[in-house]
Amino acid sequence: xxxGTELGRFLRARRARIHPQDVGLPVGTGLRRTPGLRREELxxxxxxxxxxxxxxxxxxxxxPSPAVVTALxxxxxxxxxxxxxxxELVALAAGQTPTPSTGPARAVxxxxxxxxxxxxxxxxYVVSRANDLLAANRPGLRLFxxxxxxxxxxxNLTRYxxxxxxxxxxxxxxxxxxxxxxxxxxxxxGADPDEPELVRLVGELVLKNPEFxxxxxxxxxxxxxxxxxxFQHPEVGAMCxxxxxxxxxxxxxxxxxxxxxxxxxxxxxxxLLLDMASPEEPELTGHPExxxx
Length: 293
What we know:
Blueprint: H1 6-15, H2 39-46, H3 50-57, H4 66-75, H5 80-93, H6 110-118, E1 124-127, E2 133-136, H7 138-142, H8 157-163, H9 167-170, H10 174-189, H11 196-208, H12 210-216, E3 226-233, E4 237-247, E5 255-260, H13 266-276, H14 282-285
Antiparallel strand pairs: 1-2, 1-5, 3-4, 4-5
């Protein structure tokens, strides 16, 4: 699926996910060689000609009208996040590319680092646009056992999800979390999927983890601003934590992630243990490295 545009690959992947019966079309009795909808079926549902849709999917048509994009999103039954992604890819195909990035901003402001410490005992950390772990308080770093075995430049939470052996037992619903992780990476790719940092990460994961490769080709898109995560932590046991994700102003996509639990519950007690189970170590405090600021 390397040919064509990212828009075309997105349309093909999502078309393959829709079955005729899902949209009220007859299945028929013959053998269907096409997974999901045929091009002509989707074109009919979207109210465009087969020739026009074919050119759009193959990258020979790059400027569909907003009405066509909306119709395609409805025909493909896209979520709000996936519809937003579709509009981004249309803009990208039309040459409306974003201003080139000067590179990932890895320095975390001192005020943000102080905030991480203020939030203790709640786990909290800062990630880059591509989910590199840039800073964390002690419980935030200890939430991911084994991640400090990797050098700082390798500490990426999507890489941890798919390549660290502890992740499969850390998350009690790993399959669901892995699907969310891949879909979230699609969402944060935005209209700049060729950003070098993201390309390197995706390329590594596709080569090293078949499950990620399968999920990535599904083109699911899910922006995440918060929710719940269920952990089976090797040191503090089972806990279910609420989390929130907040963009950090005046950075190149940095986000602050915080976790919490209701005081007096077993989940809160387990969270406290993350902050109390070992003596203070410089590796866990999130202080900037020399030359990082």
